[in-house]
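Readers of this paper often ask what the protein records in our data store actually look like. Such a record has a labelled line for the sequence and another for the backbone structure tokens. Nothing more is needed to write down the fold, since each code stands for a local backbone conformation. The remainder of this section carries one protein's record, kept here as part of the documentation.
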Amino acid sequence: MLATRQKVLRRFWYPVMPMRDLAPGPKAFTLLGQPIVLWRDAEGKPAAVIDRCCHRTAKLSIGFVADGAISCGYHGWTYDRTGRCIRIPQLKGDAPLPKYSVDAYRAEERYGYVWVCLGEPLGGIPDIPEAGRPGFRQIDEFCEVWNCSALRVMENSFDNAHFSYVHRASFGDIQNPEPSEFTFTEYDWGFEAHSLVPVLNPELQKKNLKVEGERTMRDNLRTWWLPFCRKLRIKYPNGLHHVIITAATPIDDGHSQLIQFAFRNDREEDAPAKDVIAFDRQVTNEDRMVLESTDYDSPLNAASGEEFHMPSDRANLIMRKKLTKLLAEHGETEQRHA
């Protein structure tokens, strides 16, 4: 599936960067192949429009913010958050302002990140109950570009079979490669998948978890929201909850903005954020090495013969089936890479 060719994917919310990144001024981003510029308006809220001035096509992202509006650095044409041109400095004071505008997009702040939707939203930003819940803290882990498709990242997040091999240096047990089974609950917006996963405990995890054993059992509840966002709630025997949110925001067909943050029901003195990040960083780097070697065009049709499957791929197949249904319901069909 080539994400940029599926118009319906423009109707979902995607996190694009931490809100703090907008403090210095406007920032450029490419979402589903569409160049956009983001900035803070006069109320401190995120705003997004096409990264193209309607005068001489200069990038607005190399301009500046004035009184909460974005000004082009070429001639100073200025736009509000709706995309309406509100100032043309070269006009005489009594000259009427033409009704010029640029395309504008929905932008909201949630969980400390800017979320953008390029079209009429089919749903809301995923709800994460742990956010703001007493006893939980938020740890922002990373925001970076990966050279792989968003769908590959999501499928990997629901693949118990790769733990023993890809994560053999962190928590995987290569001596026991049989993957744990899932139980699924499907919804219109995605699904939940539950599994009990036995893992090894390296020294850093013993410190983070306050668990001395060489092995432990993870109670994993994973949530997938169409199209490219997932939540992993790991519950440990000692009562610790480690909740990881991972979003693969499609920049284009072969590149994704990976944003990951976590919630934990412990304190900084129990497990320093830097140590939590260090372990999760090791795990995601192991995933990245493999995922960046994969084809970015994934066939949604399991019977196409382009890829073969095994029983533990059930989550991936449900994901592809739901994406196929989404495209069909909105008058689109998968377009293959030539």
Summary: The helical segments are 150-157, 163-166, 203-209, 273-291, 314-329. The CA atoms of residues 135 and 265 lie 5 Å apart. The mean pLDDT is 91. The chain has five helices and 17 strands.
